[in-house]
């Protein structure tokens, strides 16, 4: 019996990870951010899976999603983008799933996603400012000024790394979290019936 449950659990994680990886292939450019920031909806199946299967499943799905996406699409960021996606995805999904886990209701789902949104914005800002953008700059021998200039081209308020984070990274993560949260709220009850079989 326990073996059957484990196989079902693993299969569900695998299927949701694969769906998320495919969704990563469909990216939308944003009018307020440089072209290397593109919106995708890969967090939706992972958020749904995290609510149904638990926070640990969410972390596993984030990892698998990025590994599958690497196989499907390769990397154009020397793995910086994939690492960023994994860390920020976990920052969003973990708080959401942890809060929902202890009292499963619409209220705690909303509270969880609000906490996840705040976490994503905070972690995303710090990661981009201190690690991701500087690392990308060094790996590609692309001066920070050039990266900032890409931001300035779409938003004159972006004049340095700090304003790039404030006016591009933070709004990008806010938009992504809100969009994924709304769709998750609309879909979860329908999909969760299948995931709990």
Strand-helix topology:
Elements: H1 2-24, E1 28-29, E2 38-39, H2 43-53, H3 55-73, H4 80-102, H5 106-139, H6 144-154, H7 161-195
Antiparallel strand pairs: 1-2
Helix pairs in contact: 1-2, 1-3, 2-3, 2-4, 2-7, 3-4, 4-5, 5-7
Describe this structure in words.
This protein is mainly alpha-helical and 197 residues long. The chain has a single domain, classed as Arp2/3 complex 21 kDa subunit ARPC3 (Orthogonal Bundle). It contains 7 helices and 2 strands; from the N terminus they run H-E-E-H-H-H-H-H-H. The protein has helices at residues 2-24, 43-53, 55-73, 80-102, 106-139, 144-154, 161-195; strands at 28-29, 38-39. The chain has a two-stranded antiparallel ribbon with strand order 1-2. A hairpin with an 8-residue loop joins strand 1 and strand 2 (38-39). The longest helix has 35 residues, at 161-195. The radius of gyration is 17 Å and the shape is globular. The two termini are 14 Å apart. The mean pLDDT is 92.
Q: What would you say about this model in short?
A:
The chain has 197 residues and is mainly alpha-helical. The protein has a single domain (2-27, 36-195), classed as Orthogonal Bundle (Arp2/3 complex 21 kDa subunit ARPC3).
**Number of helical regions:** 7
CATH topology: Arp2/3 complex 21 kDa subunit ARPC3
Biggest sheet strand line-up: 1-2
Morphology = globular
Helix content: over 70%
Q: Which value, in Å, is the CA radius of gyration?
A: 17 Å
CATH-scheme architecture: Orthogonal Bundle
Beta-strand share of residues: under 5%
Whole-number total of structural domains: 1
The helix-and-strand class reads: mainly alpha
Question: What order do the SSEs take from the amino end to the carboxyl end, as H and E?
Answer: HEEHHHHHH
What average pLDDT do the residues reach? 92
CATH classification class: Mainly Alpha
Low-confidence stretches: none
Question: Largest sheet at a glance?
Answer: 2 strands, antiparallel
- Count the beta strands: 2
Gap between N and C termini: 14 Å
């Amino acid at each position: 019996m326990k073996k059957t449950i484990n196989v079902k659990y693993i299969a569900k994680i695998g299927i949701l990870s694969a769906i998320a990886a495919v969704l990563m292939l469909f990216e939308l450019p944003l009018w307020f951010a440089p072209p290397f920031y593109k919106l995708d909806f890969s967090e939706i199946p992972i958020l749904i899976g995290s609510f149904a299967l638990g926070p640990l499943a969410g972390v596993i799905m984030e990892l698998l999603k990025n590994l599958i996406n690497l196989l499907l699409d390769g990397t154009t960021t020397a793995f910086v983008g994939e690492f960023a996606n994994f860390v920020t995805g976990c920052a969003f999904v973990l708080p959401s799933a942890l809060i929902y886990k202890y009292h499963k209701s619409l209220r705690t789902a909303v509270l969880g996603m609000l906490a996840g949104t705040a976490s994503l914005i905070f972690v995303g800002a710090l990661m981009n400012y201190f690690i991701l953008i500087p690392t990308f700059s060094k790996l590609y021998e692309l001066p920070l000024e050039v990266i900032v200039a890409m931001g300035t081209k779409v938003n004159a308020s972006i004049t340095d790394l700090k304003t790039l984070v404030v006016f591009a990274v933070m709004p990008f993560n806010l938009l992504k979290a809100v969009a994924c949260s709304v769709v998750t709220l609309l879909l979860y009850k329908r999909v969760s019936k299948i995931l709990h079989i």
